[in-house]
Structure formats: C-alpha cells, structure tokens
DNA sequence: ACTCACATGTAAAGAGTTACATGATTTT
DNA sequence: AAAATCATGTAACTCTTTACATGTGAGT
C-alpha cells in the first residue's frame, strides 16, 4: 500500500484537497504513515489521470484554486481490491533504537538528551490520542478507534519502558567512563 | 542515520563480513531497522573507500573470498560524531494499520486473516526476544538489553491490544454487512 | 534430488523526502 | 513586524528494494 492508496482511502470519508489530506497525514495518520506534499500532490494527479478520483476546481482569490477531489466508483473498486491483502507490512525504522543500541559509545549527557526528546514526542502523540478520544462519537468508524487505540497502547508501553529502564543506559555509561578515567 | 552508519556501529562488536551483518539485520535489528544485501554491500565498499573500515580478504574454496571488515580509528571517530544527534527519528510505516483504518470496507473474513497474520509475526518476534534473553550474559551491553526490552514490551502491548480489541473490527463489519443485505 | 547455508556483488526500478517557487490573509 | 495558515506544484536527490548473476558443500 502506497501513498496513492492511502489518499484514495481517505477520500472515502468525503471530498478533500491535497492540503486537507496533508493535515490528516500529520494528525491521525502521523504515528504510522507519513507523507509530504511531494508525495500527495503527484498521487492525486495520478489518481485523477486514472479516473479513480474526480477533481472539482474551486476558484479562490489570493490563493491557488482549491482542488477538491472525490473518489469515483472505479476508485472505490480499486481501493477494495488493494485492501484485499492478507499480510500487509508493519515496518519500523528507528534511528532512536539504533542510537541506543550503541549507547556504550555515548556520554550519559547525550543519552539523557535523546531519551528526553523521545519522551517529549511520545507525550505529544499521547495528548493527540486523548483529544481524539474526546472527539469520538457513536459514528466514529471501528477502524479509527482500533488504530488510535493501538497507537495509544504502544506509545504508553514505550513511555513506561523508557521511564523505568532508561537509567540503565546512563548508569552503565557512567561506570564505563569512570573506569576509563 | 543510514545503513552505512549502522554497519559501522555493528563492526564495533568485532570484524564481520557483509553476510554476517545481514544476519544481524535479520535477527536482533530486524524489529527496528532492516537492510538487504543491496544496501549492505555497497555500504561496506563505500566505508572502505573512505578509510572508515579495513577489509581483509580471506580466500575460500568453492565460495567467493570472504571479506572481513574491521572498523578503523577514523571510522570510530566518524561513528561517535554520527551518534551525537539529540533527536534521532523513530518512524513507523504500517500498511497493517492503514488497512485496519479502512476495515469498514472489508469483510470480516479479510479482517480476521490480516489480524491473525499480524499476531503470528508478533509471536515470532516474541520468541526471538525470549531466546535472546536466555543468551544474555553479564557483558551484554546495556544498549542491547534496552533495545530488546523496548521491542519486547511494545510487541506485547500490541499483541494484547489486538487480542482484546480485534473483535470490535469484525463485529462492526458484520453489522454493516447484514444491514446492507 | 532438493533445499539450505555460505558468499559476493551489480543494475534498474521504485518510492519518498527535501528544496525550491509563489503569494495573500489572518493571527500574534 | 513576524509567523502561521491557506494552497498548489515541480525537480532533483537520496535511498531502498528487487531482480539478476554465479557457484560449492552439507544436510535431509
């Protein structure tokens, strides 16, 4: 599943512009799938060229025309086909964990900085999840609840782990540093 | 931090070949940083060209010469510089979660297949973590323990969440399907 | 007989990120 | 006065993935 397919899926929620989709990539999708304008705009153009979405141009003054995209029947069919894969990937690419793997080559100060920055980002995500939960209503799709629930659970587990085991990294480094001096 | 830097870091553990590094990418690093031969071999060549690693060619019969790489002092310096970033990224790209977001467009059968495949992969990782824990000794670096601990904790949280909330996805779909028929 | 492990590498293709280019309106 | 929001898009660059290319030896 690429950016094109995710955009197509987002449009099942209603018509939207590339700018609108970007906001969704930053908020709700942010913790598991990111995309920038450089992927989104070409994706929408390509979907339109394939007849999977329709585009309505809405003139505006002072800004470029707003392009409102709507999924077509063909697009819906294509999306349902794309969703029919029994083993979708789930990939993590973490410079954070790679860095921590080599913690013995760092100073305690460096490690603490990395850890505290990570905790800050986790806290930002957790705040977002809590806000999303408050906005939830009876017609919030089960998929949305599930994915946000996964995100919240995983972030909390990570937060707990860093808070309870992070010190082991700096303790060890300090031992090594004092032994070396 | 790219594949080159991670390879450099792996070599602080002792000399290794590209083939050896690949095995480490598949096992211990597998859950947070992956790389194939197509990235590893060019990375090692490039590191050697920059004098960050030395290469010793060991003739073998029937197989290509084994190329044993060792990190140099320059390489160690470069690695320590690369590690000095206070905010390393931690990115997830999950087709799995994207698929589940759109669960209302899928059948209960499709959803159950996706969920059970995900649980199987999680179980494989958890088995690996347990085996690694048994192999741990007093001189296992703190970084290794920490990263594996993170992985195990997060995987368990995800497993628990899927097991306790997965049915909400299929329940909802069944309601929708029977309402539609 | 077949498959797995060992062992290296290249080349093309695919995908995404970053930087650039432009510019009005609203909020701080 | 500065920064953020709205709004679109391209082009170059970086990086990874996949497919190809080759071949032995050991285990099942």
Number of domains of chain A: 2
Biggest sheet: strand arrangement of chain A? 1-2
Multimeric status of the protein? homodimer
- Structural class based on helices, strands and sheet pairing of chain A: mainly alpha
Sheet with the most strands, sense and barrel status of chain A: 2 strands, antiparallel
Low-confidence stretches of chain A: none
Question: How far apart, in Å, are the first and last alpha carbons of chain A?
Answer: 52 Å
Secondary structure tally, helices of chain A: 7
Description:
The structure is a homodimer of 181-residue chains. Chain A has 181 residues and is mainly alpha-helical. Chain A has two domains: 3-83, Winged helix-like DNA-binding domain superfamily/Winged helix DNA-binding domain (Arc Repressor Mutant, subunit A, Orthogonal Bundle), CATH 1.10.10; 95-180. In chain A, 64% of the residues lie in helices and 9% in strands. Chain A has a two-stranded antiparallel ribbon. In chain A, a hairpin with a 7-residue loop joins β1 and β2. In chain A, α1 packs across α3 and α6 (108-135) runs antiparallel to α7. The first copy, chain A, is elongated and about 60 Å long. The model of chain A has no long low-confidence stretch (mean pLDDT 92). At the A-B interface, α1, α4, β3, α5 and α6 of A face α1, β3, α5, α6 and α7 of B. Chain A binds a DNA duplex (28 and 28 nucleotides) through α3.
List the helices and strands and how they pair.
The structure is a homodimer of 181-residue chains.
Chain A: H1 3-10, H2 18-26, H3 37-49, E1 53-58, E2 66-71, H4 73-83, E3 90-94, H5 95-101, H6 108-135, H7 142-180
Antiparallel strand pairs in A: 1-2
Helix pairs in contact in A: 1-3, 2-3, 6-7
The structure holds a DNA duplex (28 and 28 nucleotides).
